[in-house]
Amino acid sequence: MPLPPIAYERTRQHVRRVELSGFKRGDGHWDIEARIVDVKDHDYHLSSGMRPQGEPVHDMSVRVTIDRKMSILDAVACSDATPYPGLCESIAPHYRQLVGLNLFHGFRKAVKDLFGGVHGCSHLSELLMHLPTAALQTFASDIPDNDDSAHKPYQLDRCHALDAHAEAVRRYYPRWYRAPLAESASETPPFTKPLSPDGELNAGSAGTPSNPGKENA
Length: 217
Prior knowledge:
This is DUF2889 domain-containing protein. The protein is of the alpha+beta class. The protein folds into two domains: about 15-140, Sufe protein. Chain: A; about 145-215, no CATH class. The protein is built from five helices and six strands, in the order ββββββααααα. A four-stranded antiparallel sheet has the order 1-2-5-6, covered by helices on one side. It starts with 13 loop residues before the first strand and ends in a 30-residue tail after the last helix.
């Protein structure tokens, strides 16, 4: 469902485009790339000079290479357009500090610790926050999204539609469906065995998400 129509006059001032891409490499690793571009619909006066309409104020990119456990093996950042040419770009090499981090374990906190404030570029660091979910979507293309896994699919219980008690899980992931408490109390005798034959539902081994879903990441 699209946004409702606008009933008043307005003029666009700014466009920000954020693009993320995931690539499966021939050596068994994966590249996740992110790019941010800011463009004004009018001539824009900066302290460093006037930026003509349609010419990017920001055009910045980052690429990380990861393994299947989402550990970062390589990282590179670049700035092709900045508000302060020749100055903003100097921080790009600092993003090599991403190497050794894991997208699944404490990544966002590590980014804030390493690149917060004057230790980083706010736009590059903002891009990094998108990398974990972009990686999940990339892996989702390579792993069937079905109910056959011995481990609970990663996306379950991570949004309202995929609540383990919800209709979407009952319909598409019946093995992991849990009846709402009221329904369970009225239909299930006390002291029955757990719904899952495996006992307590697990999220899979650390760093190796099971069937990351296209609907949530």
